[in-house]
Design brief:
heterodimer; A: mainly alpha; two-stranded antiparallel ribbon; 14 helices; 2 strands; globular; B: mainly alpha
Chain lengths: 381, 171
């Protein structure tokens, strides 16, 4: 550990945080425009060409807003909560690689990689940061001295703890498939086939569980405005509110980057473009571009879900997490491990048994869900 | 003194300071948060020892699951969670003396272990610690029996918890 490496981390980290903050501003613009299109509106189009200066106008507005401190709030925690919420959202992507090894360049006698930290437990690091992300929201809800805020905080704790299990188990399928916990190895293991194809149900579970982890619609119970005013951030205003808002959107970006890395091939091209000009082996500069395109598409998926699906009822949210996602993802881990073992010991074609059997398991889960809901409907009628 | 030693001393101060605050603070939720800080310090210790897997698991299990359950339970109880009474008993000096004695005994014991004052040797280059740990946990020559026994114990606790929770609902 030399001074130069510390300086390299600092510079890379600073640049990455700046990118995330800029990304947050324009993600709000992207979301508002996309939502408006889906709802047959126009959306923000006044500030600057196509409304592109809208995020800057919003930032200026928020800076000059009055900040309130609720009476008898826990002052220190009320002040710290937005910071604690934002920090995990910024640091979680530190282990994600954005370019292949061919893109590394020497500078002052050092090799600069396209990754902030290359640690051998990269995916577990993501898991651990995701598990401490709940603190900020809980503390924001508790320290406000407001019943609605407190209820929002409680809901988010319960929800995030429940969905973290399914999330962790879908990470396990990826670790088993890649045979490594290092992020670069996971991306390189998807050279011949993305894990999205090998483990489609695991990918769906991952996307659902991350939606719940970042409190996005249809799992936005912690801030359900019809029931809880605004949930955990009811009492926040001005820049403190902006920090909470920023944390939510940076979490969206972060999980889309992670999903792109572990299920959609990360910086790698489509598997059938392997030996062409489009491959990152031949044109390394395409690596970050691919990550950006994948993240852009995944973010659109999240916005689309928000525009389409109504909020899920709280008891159903819990039942869905514990009674369907958890057993299903456990079964998927078992199926994936069995498939890999058979492929190694008997015939490599068994690898294709994994997606087939997973899809069957997912179908059984959906069927079970449908039957239960039907039965409840009959019982009510 | 190497950078590693300075880091160790700083981490040790963080752990001890936060552990002291856990018992000294008057608010229950603040105590839980100081506990989180102490557990985080332990994770840093693991990271200094290059036990990356243990460091990450420390964060996931203790900070991400156990401490958050503490906070969840605290939030479900009274709103005004201040401890008003006096924080020390009259015979606190006996406890302090006992604590010092135990500390002296521990220091003596640790110093008696050969090599206790040496720095940890660097891990050999290219050693996959996660794989080594995973193999040790499931290999019959190493820890498969304790591992499985612990799993069965946890499963039994899980079934017990579900049973206790479901008994009240029936009537």
């Amino acid at each position: 550990m030399t001074f130069a490496s510390i300086l390299e981390w600092l510079i890379k980290g600073f640049v990455w945080v700046m990118i995330l903050l800029g990304g947050f501003a324009y993600l709000t613009y992207y979301e508002r425009r996309a939502l408006a299109r889906i709802q047959v509106r126009i959306g923000p189009n006044r500030a600057g060409p196509l409304g592109l200066l809208q995020p800057i106008a919003d930032a200026i507005k928020l800076i000059f807003k009055e900040e309130l401190m609720p009476a008898r709030a826990d002052k220190l925690l009320f002040f710290l909560a937005p910071i604690i919420t934002l920090t995990p959202a910024l640091v979680i992507t530190a282990v994600v690689p954005f370019g292949p090894e061919g893109l590394n360049f020497p500078l002052f006698g050092r090799v600069i990689t396209w990754q902030i930290a290359d640690i051998n437990v990269g995916i577990l690091y993501i898991m651990s940061i995701a598990s401490i992300a709940v603190y900020g929201i809980v503390l924001a809800g508790w320290s406000s001295n407001n019943k609605y805020a407190m209820l929002g905080g409680l809901r988010s704790t319960a929800q995030m703890i429940s969905y973290e299990l399914a999330l962790g188990l879908s990470f396990v399928s990826v670790i088993v498939l890649a045979d490594s916990t290092r992020m670069i190895d996971i991306v390189e293991a998807q050279k011949s086939m993305w894990f999205m194809v090998l483990q489609p149900v695991g990918m769906v579970i991952f996307l659902i569980a991350t939606l719940a982890e970042v409190n996005r619609s249809p799992f936005d119970m912690p801030e359900a405005e019809q029931e809880l005013a605004a949930g955990y951030h009811s009492e926040y205003g001005g820049m403190k509110f902006a920090l909470l808002f920023m944390a939510e959107y940076d979490k969206m970006i972060a999980i889309c980057i992670i999903a792109a890395t572990i299920f959609f091939g990360g910086y790698r091209e489509f598997w059938f473009l392997q030996n062409t000009w489009f491959s990152v082996d031949q044109t390394p500069i395409l690596g970050p571009v691919y990550v950006f395109i994948k993240v852009f598409i995944l973010l659109f998926g999240m916005i689309w879900v928000r525009a389409t699906l109504p909020r899920i009822r709280y008891d159903r949210l819990m039942a869905f997490g514990w009674k369907i996602l958890l057993p299903l993802s456990l079964a998927l881990v078992f199926l994936t491990a069995t498939g890999i073992l058979l492929a190694q010991e008997v015939n490599p074609l068994f690898m294709w048994g994994i997606p087939v059997v997973s899809l069957a398991a997912g179908f059984i889960a959906i069927l079970g869900m449908y039957q239960t809901l039907r039965r409840k409907e009959h019982a009510r009628a | 003194m190497t950078a590693e030693q300075i880091l160790f001393l700083l981490t040790g101060a963080l752990i001890l300071g936060s552990a002291l605050m856990v018992v000294a603070t008057r608010k229950l939720l603040h105590a839980a948060l100081w506990l989180v800080a102490a557990l985080f310090g332990v994770a840093i210790l693991y990271a200094i020892l290059q036990a990356s897997f243990l460091a990450v698991v420390q964060v996931v299990v203790y900070i991400g699951a156990i401490a958050i359950l503490f906070i969840f339970a605290v939030m479900l109880t009274r709103r005004e969670m201040r401890d008003q009474g006096q924080q020390t008993r009259t015979n606190w000096w006996i406890a302090a003396l006992l604590g010092l004695l135990i500390l002296a005994g521990l220091v003596f014991l640790i110093l008696a272990v050969p090599g206790a004052d040496r720095l940890p040797a660097a891990l050999p280059e290219g050693l996959d610690t996660v794989r080594a740990l995973g193999n040790a946990l499931v290999s019959p020559e190493a820890y498969v029996l304790p591992f499985e026994v612990a799993s069965v114990l946890l499963l039994a606790a899980l079934v017990g918890a579900v049973y206790i929770a479901s008994v009240g609902k029936k009537d």
